[in-house]
Design goal:
This is DUF4034 domain-containing protein. It comes from Streptomyces huasconensis. The chain is mainly alpha-helical. The protein folds into two domains: 31-188, Serine Threonine Protein Phosphatase 5, Tetratricopeptide repeat (Alpha Horseshoe), CATH 1.25.40; 202-330. It has 16 helices and no strands. The chain has helices at residues 17-27, 32-40, 44-58, 63-70, 75-95, 100-117, 123-132, 157-166, 171-183, 191-202, 213-224, 229-236, 239-253, 263-275, 279-289, 308-328. Helix 5 packs antiparallel against helix 6.
């Protein structure tokens, strides 16, 4: 019988214990365990996830630069270096930094170099997809390719195809494309995003994380419409939102290996099921999450969006509500 745990914990590595240990080493400036972990990473999906988390952890340090100086021919070091440059360019863009264009050019060059070193790796193409959102006016030809279906939008479809060819249904690749959609200046309110995720999930097999994409768009809509609390609460029990949550449960959660999945995906699913009053099903997701949580999407249901403590408190309240309802039905 599920029981509410203590205060939820945020950690970027979540249930990935080897990655948690490596992150500790990186904080101390030690990179050897990172090299070993990446060498032993068994598939492109996990490789993508780990390199993204590692880069975010070292974006403000020179540990990868030191590693590359020691092992200049290391493919893993080159890919992580590319990740770091891309993350720096994205952060500079969000901050309106005057060096954004320089950082952007450096990141694009690093993507090309990493792709040459490891042609089968989807990450350099995913990185180019991430950088596409900096081209808000879609000035570059590769960012306004004709879509595969008429209801979709011109965009970096060839970049997505290259990532998809190397790792079909790669979670981050499709999320990067969704972020690109959010940044487009044309189109109605989230219409293009809804069209994109429906297109993506239509051919996704059972167990694919792409089945979570509609939940992210629901959260984005909720975030943009914040202000009318009653209407926002009704948003989550609408037929469309409830159907999306249950489909994600059945087509992803019931087939995936939960401990190897994204914490963000698990949190979005628990959040959607709780919001749809599907408390018993939500309790199953909360059990798998224990003891971890992520600030998003819970923060958007609080009075202080961005406040990690408020998000953790709401997460704990929702978890208790769902575990309580689950016990009552036994």
């Amino acid at each position: 019988m599920p029981k509410p745990s203590g205060r939820p914990v945020y950690h970027p590595a979540g249930h990935d214990e080897p990655l948690r240990a490596v992150l500790q080493d990186l904080k101390a400036g030690r990179w050897v365990s990172t090299r070993n972990l990446l060498t032993e990473t068994p598939d492109w999906g996990l490789w993508t996830q780990r390199t993204q988390i590692l880069a975010a952890a070292v974006v403000g340090s020179d540990v990868v630069h030191i590693w590359r100086a020691e092992e200049p021919y290391s493919t893993s070091a080159a890919v992580l270096h590319t990740r770091v440059l891309v993350e720096r360019a994205l952060r500079a863009h969000r901050a309106g930094h005057r060096r954004t264009n320089d950082l952007w050019r450096d990141a694009v060059a690093a993507c090309a170099a990493a792709s040459s070193l490891s042609p089968e790796d989807p990450v350099p193409w995913i990185c180019l997809l991430a950088l596409a959102q900096l081209d808000e006016g879609q000035r570059w030809d590769e960012h306004r390719v004709a879509p595969p279906e008429p209801m979709l939008f011109p965009g970096p479809w060839q970049l997505l195809a290259e990532a998809d060819k190397r790792d079909p249904g790669n979670r981050e690749a499709y999320h990067r494309m969704l972020q690109f959609v959010y940044g487009r200046r044309s189109g109605g309110p989230l219409t293009e995003a809804y069209n994109f995720v429906q297109w993506a999930v239509a051919s996704a097999p059972a167990g694919s994380a792409l089945h979570l994409l509609p939940l992210y768009v629901h959260v984005e809509r909720y975030r943009r419409e914040a202000g009318n609390e009653r209407a926002l609460d009704l948003h989550w029990i609408s037929e469309d939102a409830t159907r999306g949550a249950l489909r994600a449960l059945q087509l992803w959660f019931d087939h995936a290996l939960p401990t190897a999945t994204s914490l963000l995906d698990l949190n979005h699913l628990a959040h959607a099921l709780w919001g749809a009053h599907q408390f018993h099903d939500a309790s199953r997701v909360f059990e798998v999450l224990d003891p971890f949580y992520t600030v998003v999407p819970w923060t958007y249901r609080t009075h202080s969006p961005g406040d990690a403590d408020a998000a953790a408190e709401l997460f704990a309240q929702a978890r208790s509500r769902c575990f309580g309802a689950s016990r009552d039905t036994r």
